Amino acid sequence: MSLETGRYLIHHGDKVVSRSFIEDRSFNPKRIDLLEPSDREITWIIEKTDDGYILHNRGAPTAHIDNNVFALLIEQGLATKWTIEAVSQHGKDGYMYAPRS
């Protein structure tokens, strides 16, 4: 089953996957981390393309850099195309994502 373009919440266990709300003021790529749940709903835009998905967090597309995920504030054209696959052992809403090779 494939996902359609839309807003999604991404969790890893009890943690929320997102950029931190406290970041430096540079335009450097911002690391995506596991955060404690908060009152703020952190939605992702998952954009379905012809050859994969682009994952956007807090308005910025993401890229796979040095085996980590970062949000790109500038050079957004370098965003990674991701594959997203259902993982049935994690329930009907269980998915995993990986950079396309």
UniProtKB/TrEMBL annotation:
This is Uncharacterized protein. It comes from the Eukaryota. Pfam families: Inhibitor_I66. InterPro entries: Inhibitor_I66.
